[in-house]
Write a structure and sequence with these properties.
Shape: globular
Distance between the termini: 58 Å
Helix content: 25-40%
CATH architecture of one domain: 4-Layer Sandwich
CATH class of one domain: Alpha Beta
Structural class: alpha+beta
Oligomer: single chain
CATH topology of one domain: Phosphatase 2c, domain 1
Number of strands: 23
CATH superfamily of one domain: PPM-type phosphatase domain
Strand content: 15-25%
């Protein structure tokens, strides 16, 4: 075990082993691709341009053309490929404007074309007008997403094509409820909200359990606080729809991996704008921040082996068979040596944020569930992210130990109400993969944007694309004798970098 873990650690760079991990993911290598590899559709690149973008030495920065109608709200976007880490750019992005309408008839596995009006993000000369948007029984939805793939681009490509459909599928069932903001969502579909007869029946039933003492409404009736229902706000339904969509997307990848070659896995960062609110859903280590009046407002958290240590340890504690008798769920400051058996050493369990001493036993000599620290931390010495989509075939190197049970597809969803604030043209939402955040701090990004945008023509809708390009350039740096370098001669990012700059003032106008 020790030999193969050492081998795994030596071969893994950036989260997934470049060579042997492919064998774990490659069971579908002979199957057809679910979708062909490419760059985001809204870039409108030709095959030759896609090929040129894959130059790992020149690393050209791709941006939107002058036709800013390709994306809503004059959103800016820029990307660059890695410096040789993987053949393809494993980042993927999609952005669309959609119209959510209640589904006609029964439930379908994919959105009904008659019930969901969609504006493709491809340039088609139609601007931002929604097709057939004369209906008044639906809701406009704006969607941005970033997917950071590993061990191949397959899962990221699939998610970029399909996740928005799963979100629509979930929202279609509740669209009538969301439109009726004056009334809280009913607890049970089909019944009237706040139905007095329901409360009456509940109290009568409760009274009967007390032996009939105290009719409802009589002075001897106990307070009814234990029988009141929770009031669920509308935004919680949207959050639940997004969470359910992530789960369904992950299950679809699992099902289809036996039919298609869907390589590896991916992190997912999604923004949905609906009824005046931004819903930012993150599963992985990409990041979203809002810059408002120069102030940074974090809109996501990174999920890594270190940030999710207690969840991972608890799962391993409850289901030790997942460790394959090769790993220990306990954490130690360093690898335990055989000569230390019987001695007392610092350790940490799933229920602890602090540290304590324990007597070392034989089981403690096993390899730790979480190996390394910081950006080098890995689950079972294999993968550096703990949430995302795919990775269903991923195993510990040279073993039959699956890692997927420890990887969650559940996103954290944060909500930002655009109606609560007045936004200026320089207030933006930044979405980016970890290629940006590995080398630039939130404050550096905010300073760069707040210095860049005021120097642009305020009437130029391309200014946000230029701001995205500037951020990518700052993170990529310049190729020198000692590699890619950024300001203060720091090491630049060798990873794929993808960045959205979304102006919030347009969201206020949509509201």
């Amino acid at each position: 075990m020790l030999t193969r873990v050492k081998s795994a650690v030596a071969n893994f760079m950036g989260g997934i082993m470049a060579g042997s991990a492919g064998a774990d993911h490659g069971s579908g290598a002979d199957l057809p691709l679910r979708f062909p590899y490419g760059r985001p559709e809204f870039l409108g690149l030709s095959p030759d341009e896609v090929e040129c973008s894959a130059d790992h030495i020149a690393r050209p920065i791709l941006i939107l053309s002058k036709d800013t109608r390709r994306l809503p709200w004059t959103t800016g976007y820029a990307e660059v490929i890695n410096a040789g880490k993987s053949t393809h750019n494993e980042d993927q992005a999609s952005c669309e404007v959609l119209f959510v309408k209640k589904k006609a008839g029964g439930s379908n596995s994919t959105p009904n074309k008659n019930s969901t009006k969609r504006r493709s993000s491809l340039p088609n000369g139609e601007g931002l007008q929604l097709k057939d948007n004369s209906d008044t029984d639906g809701i406009n939805l704006y969607y941005w997403s970033l997917f950071d793939g590993h061990a191949g681009s397959g899962a990221a490509v699939v998610a970029s094509k399909l996740l928005q459909h799963h979100i629509l599928e979930q929202l279609q069932e509740i669209v009538d409820i969301l439109r009726n903001t004056a009334v809280l969502p009913p607890t049970c579909l089909g019944e009237e909200p706040d139905n007095p007869s329901t409360n009456s029946r509940t109290l009568t039933r409760a009274a009967s359990l007390r032996g009939g003492v105290g009719a409802p409404g009589s002075p001897s009736t106990p307070p009814t606080r234990f029988f009141t229902e929770k009031k669920i706000p509308h935004e919680c339904l949207v959050i639940g729809a997004i969470e359910s969509a992530f789960k369904e997307m992950d299950l679809q990848i699992e099902r289809e991996r036996t039919v298609y070659n869907i390589s590896g896995g991916c992190t997912a960062l999604v923004v949905v704008y609906l009824l005046g609110k931004l819903y930012v859903a993150n599963a992985g280590d990409s990041r979203a921040i809002i810059i408002r009046n120069g102030e940074v407002i974090p809109m996501s958290s990174e999920f890594t082996p270190e940030t999710e240590r207690q969840r991972l340890q608890y799962l391993a504690y409850m289901q030790p068979h997942l460790l394959g008798n090769e790993f220990t769920h306990l954490e130690f400051p360093r690898r335990v040596q055989r000569k230390e058996v019987g001695k007392r050493m610092l350790y940490r369990d799933f229920n602890m944020t602090g540290w304590a001493y324990k007597t070392i036993e034989e089981d403690d000599l096993k390899f730790p569930l979480i190996y390394g620290e910081g950006k080098k931390a890995r689950v079972m010495a294999t993968i550096g992210v703990t949430r995302g989509l795919g990775d269903h075939d991923l195993k510990v190197h040279d073993s039959n130990i699956y890692i997927k049970p420890f990887l969650s597809s559940s996103p954290e969803v944060r909500v930002y109400d655009l109606l609560q604030y007045e936004h200026g043209p320089d207030d933006v939402l930044i979405l980016a993969t970890d290629g940006l955040w590995d080398v630039l701090l939130n404050e550096e990004v905010a300073e760069a944007v707040t210095n860049f945008l005021p120097n642009c023509d305020p009437d130029d809708p391309h200014r946000y694309t230029l701001a995205a390009q500037d951020l990518v350039m700052r993170a990529r740096g310049v190729l020198k004798d000692r590699g890619w370098r950024i300001s203060n001669d720091r090491l630049g990012s060798g990873d794929d970098i993808s960045v959205y700059v979304i102006p919030l003032i347009h969201g206020n106008k949509q509201s």
